[in-house]
Write a structure and sequence with these properties.
84 residues, mainly beta, 40% strand
Length: 84
């Protein structure tokens, strides 16, 4: 299965957080590397979208859209900063 970059989930991130999030910086809870969310490796073939760390491959966030609501699990992130 081919991975996309984090831009593939830009719309869902905007719906969940209320503003542009692909430029936000997330720190992996497993390896500690910090990247923009646009750099995540995204897989869309699951019931939702799974975004993995580009360095270690661990899951950083999962997005699921159900009945018009976007649910986000970010337990793979140690920190998330929009820079604002």
């Amino acid at each position: 299965m081919d991975a996309l970059d984090g831009n593939a989930i830009a719309g869902a991130l905007r719906a969940a957080f209320g503003h542009e999030m692909t430029t936000a910086r997330g720190t992996c809870a497993t390896c500690g590397q910090t990247n923009t969310l646009a750099a995540l490796r995204v897989y869309l073939r699951a019931p939702g979208a799974v975004a993995r760390c580009p360095a270690c491959g661990e899951v950083q966030l999962v997005l699921i859209e159900a009945r018009g609501v976007v649910c986000v699990d970010v337990r793979g992130l140690a920190a998330l900063s929009t820079g604002a």
